[in-house]
Design brief:
heterodimer, A: 125 residues, alpha+beta, CPE0013-like fold, B: 417 residues, alpha/beta, FAD/NAD(P)-binding domain, Immunoglobulin-like, 7-stranded mixed β-sheet, 5-stranded parallel β-sheet, 27 strands, globular, binds flavin-adenine dinucleotide, binds iron/sulfur cluster
Chain lengths: 125, 417
């Protein structure tokens, strides 16, 4: 008989939202994932059990543009526990127009391996 | 002075309108696009979250990144357009001549075209439309208003937020407020299940510990000069208020995410007939309304949850307009009506011919697992693992399949177990 825990979760990698069943052993390791339609679902389940990560998005103020802000995101998911550190660092920044889309404005935000990139341009007024 | 008669004028510069304009131009039409706001882009311009373009670009983009791919392409192609241009009236002079009135910064202007592609999106439902009473206090916003304030202008609408409605829009707004440091006191949902995708319940509410009140109705919003609290009650299976379950939640801001409705008043004035299920126009497979030469796409046609479908519809309407211009009208003489069968709440298009492959977009009334989607008259069956009211189903019917039908096709969604 196994003492493995079975956990149900929804894969959030894409809008299909597959219902996953994850089997976890006593040491917290994932031993089996079922219900995923593609391999990304398995990676997600392992990540979610060991160290959940999310993409973070916000806006940054821009001076001298037709838009008062540009939108930004982390270019890869960051640890859930780091979300508010990331937000804090973003809120300390103000940019000058023009800002291009896809520009890196913070490298290794809050000590993570992710950068903050712009997701909307802010042309000069 | 000579005025140009365009092949097609596209109303609305959101994803549907931009995609339609680009396609129409590629098909050789002479086009003009008109946008009400001072910028192109529509709703995605204020959507900072990813989840856009997975089908169209095979990439997960934010709404802003997604829409800028279209804006850039549109501008590079040199397509003529005006922003700050609000359509107020269409005159149906003849099948191949439409005259429109537009309010612009230069005053009222008129334009003429052979075809119109109406892609104005939808309007948001207000609190009074969902039976909430109380004064119209400052501090009540629709989700779209709150999103524009926060994510375009960078202004926080409030600190303690109650969100009405748990569709994807409500859930996504809850996360944005939580990320920016506001306290989301509650998301209130009338139905016994959340309106949005499970992935959004997980990453927008659960991640931030935001409470979701299912089977609850907001009955009043109270306060002296601004919002101070909302009053909620439980509802039973018939969605009636249960006596004695009243509760109050203190807050300074109420965000209404109670759904979208296609806005087609301007079309109705020229005789476009509305489908009571979609609340958008009745259309054929070219997305042409019952008024020849007037096409529609995107949220003005049917409320879409995926921008990929919106773009597909925009491109299809442009193809329709191009066929119309080439043949001085859509040449089809005989149409087959598409009917809603069991567990199909709405569908478009309403008429098909058998001359083209057609994508049927539909929504179910009730969630169901392991289903078969059946079109009995043409012997077609498609199996799906799950169907939910929040997610549009899109199914392609091949022209050979459509040809098997005599004069009607029914779509029904049945359990496969
Ligand atoms: C909060 C939110 C989150 C979403 N998240 C996602 C997601 O993660 N993934 C996804 O795929 N989809 C998402 N969607 C859906 C997607 O954004 C919409 O389906 C899409 O924007 C609809 O496009 P549209 O062009 O029909 O309408 P819109 O984007 O609304 O554009 C319509 C345009 O027409 C203009 N207009 C209106 N009336 C007139 C007039 N009289 N004259 C001239 N111009 C006019 C408007 O100003 C607007 O620019 C989301 C929607 C919302 C609201
Ligand atoms: S398992 Fe694959 S298909 Fe299913 S939700 Fe996750 S990413 Fe999407």
């Amino acid at each position: 008989m196994s003492n493995n825990e079975k956990r149900l979760m929804t894969c959030i990698v894409c809008p299909l939202g597959c219902e996953l069943e994850v089997e976890i052993d006593e040491n917290g390791n994932v031993v089996a994932v079922t219900g995923n339609t593609c391999p990304k679902g398995k990676d997600y389940a392992i990540q979610e059990v060991t160290a959940p990560k999310r993409v973070v998005m916000s806006v940054v103020y821009v001076k001298g543009s037709i838009f008062p802000t540009v939108s930004v995101k982390t270019n890869k998911p960051v640890l859930k526990s780091k979300i508010f550190d990331v937000m804090k660092e973003i809120s300390n920044i103000t940019l000058e127009a023009p800002v291009e889309i896809g520009q890196i404005i913070i490298k290794n935000v809050a000590g993570t391996d992710a950068d903050i990139v712009t997701t909307r341009p802010a042309p000069k007024k | 002075m000579m005025t140009t008669k365009y092949d097609s004028i596209i109303i609305g510069g959101g994803p549907a309108g931009l995609a339609a304009a680009i396609k129409a131009k590629e098909l050789g039409l002479n086009v003009l696009l008109l946008e009400n706001r001072d910028v192109l882009g529509g709703i995605p311009l204020q959507c900072l979250h990813p989840g856009f373009g997975l089908h169209y670009f095979k990439e997960d983009l934010t709404g802003t990144e997604f829409i800028y791919r279209f804006i850039d392409k549109f501008q590079k192609m040199g397509i003529e357009y005006f922003t700050n241009a609000h359509l107020t009236e269409i005159e149906n002079i003849s099948d191949t001549e439409k005259r429109i009135k537009v309010i612009t910064s230069k005053g009222l202007q008129t334009f003429t075209a052979k075809t119109i592609i109406y892609a104005t999106g939808a309007r948001e439902r207000h609190l009074y439309e969902i039976g909430v009473t109380g004064k119209r206090l400052p501090g009540i916003f629709t989700a779209g208003e709150a999103q524009t304030m926060m994510d375009v202008y960078g202004i926080m609408p409030g600190k303690e937020i109650v969100i009405v409605g748990s569709g994807d829009v409500g859930l996504i707004m809850a996360r944005r407020f939580a990320l920016e440091g506001a306290t989301v006191k509650a998301v209130i949902e009338l139905m016994p299940f959340p309106g949005g995708l499970t992935r959004n319940v997980v990453q927008c509410l659960d991640d931030f510990g935001i409470p979701l009140y299912l089977s609850h109705a907001v009955t009043r919003v109270e306060g002296d000069s601004t919002v101070e609290k909302v009053i909620i009650s439980e509802v039973n299976e018939r969605l009636e208020i249960k006596e004695g379950t009243e509760k109050e939640i203190k807050c300074d801001t109420v965000v209404v995410a109670a759904g979208l409705v296609p806005y087609i008043k301007i079309l109705e004035k020229i005789g476009v007939v509305k489908d009571q299920a979609t609340r958008g126009p009745i259309v054929n497979e070219y997305l042409e309304t019952l008024i020849p030469g007037v096409f529609t796409a995107g949220n003005a046609l049917v409320i879409n949850d995926l921008v990929d479908h919106v773009v597909e519809q925009g491109e299809l309407a442009a193809f329709g307009a191009s066929e119309f211009v080439k043949n001085e009208g859509i040449p089809t003489r005989k149409w087959k009506r598409v009917f809603r069968g069991r567990n199909v709440r709405l569908l478009v298009p309403h008429y098909v011919s058998g001359e083209n492959d057609v994508i049927i977009y539909a929504r179910v009334s009730r969630p169901m697992n392991k289903v078969k989607v059946r079109f009995p008259e043409i012997n077609k069956e498609v199996r799906l693992p799950v169907v939910k009211p929040a997610e549009m189903i899109s199914i392609k019917l091949k022209k050979e399949e459509i040809q098997r039908a005599v004069d009607r096709i029914t779509m029904e969604v049945l359990s496969n177990e």
